Amino acid sequence: MGFLREAFDRYLVRCDAGSLEPELDYLPYDFEEDVSRYQWRLLGGALVEDELRELTNILNNWHDMLLRWHAWNEVLAEYAKDDAWDLRREFLEPLVHHCLLSPSAARDTFLFVATNSFHQLRLGLDSTYKDFLVGDPTSPGKRPKHLTRPQKESRLADIVAPWSDGESFIAQLKTVDDDAYRELTFDYRNRASHAIAPRLALGHTQTITRFVEQAKRLEKQEDGTYQDVLVPGQMTVCYGYGGTPPLELEEARQENLEQYSRARLTYESFRSLLLKEMRNLSKKK
């Protein structure tokens, strides 16, 4: 127990010393007055304000987790392998897990909040715009249709299409949780949710793999050699050695920090577009 206390004291000292990343202020909650001063349709303004506050909470929490991850990485660098293992399990792994899931979660949350916000804005600006979202049930007894992420992004693109900055906002949103990040983190989010996640710092996972591919057969060539040839219309199950390597904690932190920076830019783009178009609403008397 004394070992853990000593390490945690070092962590607190490192936090107090500053110079941790992200070297940015937390996002402010200064949007409430802007939203509430305008005439929204029904409860539209309250909905926008509530969900924007929660989006801000989510990004600020990710910010906080990254600061703590950075501090613990520097503390763990002072310990031998076995001690660092214990400290990682006790203090760091939940933080890292949360951060590694955050890019995907943030992109989906942006989609949800932006769709609701800009839909409410369109309702307030255009009396001919219908209060209907793709996926809403269209008759009694039917359930809402669950859309894929690309379908949700297409729906949002349609909602913001009338505004000149809408396209750039969608483009910025798509930089979060991009293919390159998923590749660099060995698709941690999907593996953690649906299979076996890569380990952190030490240990390989899924060393034996099963996969299905088009069947092949050996076919003799004119020169007397044999070559694998694909068998049309036939598949085969294969087993082999594979393995997902562990994530190196500092490299993973840097990649996650870049994703956070992109999410911040997406947030700023969202707020900017929302505020710009909100000004076309009537002001409350």
Describe this structure in words.
The structure is a single chain. The protein is mainly alpha-helical and 285 residues long. The protein is 57% helix and 10% strand. It has helices at residues 2-17, 32-36, 44-76, 81-125, 149-160, 166-173, 179-184, 188-194, 249-278, and strands at residues 208-220, 226-241. Strand 1 (208-220) and strand 2 form a beta hairpin. It starts with a helix and ends in a 7-residue tail after the last helix. The model has no long low-confidence stretch (mean pLDDT 94).
Briefly say what this structure is.
Helix content is 57%, strand content 10%. By secondary structure, it is mainly α.
Please write out the topology.
Blueprint: H1 2-17, H2 32-36, H3 44-76, H4 81-125, H5 149-160, H6 166-173, H7 179-184, H8 188-194, E1 208-220, E2 226-241, H9 249-278
Antiparallel strand pairs: 1-2
Helix pairs in contact: 1-3, 3-4, 3-9, 4-5, 4-9, 6-9
Low-confidence stretches: none
Class inferred from helices and paired strands: mainly alpha
- The overall average pLDDT, rounded, is 94
**Major beta-sheet overview:** 2 strands, antiparallel
The portion of residues forming beta strands comes to 5-15%
- Strand line-up of the largest beta sheet: 1-2
The helix content is 55-70%
Keywords:
285 residues; two-stranded antiparallel sheet; 9 helices; 57% helix
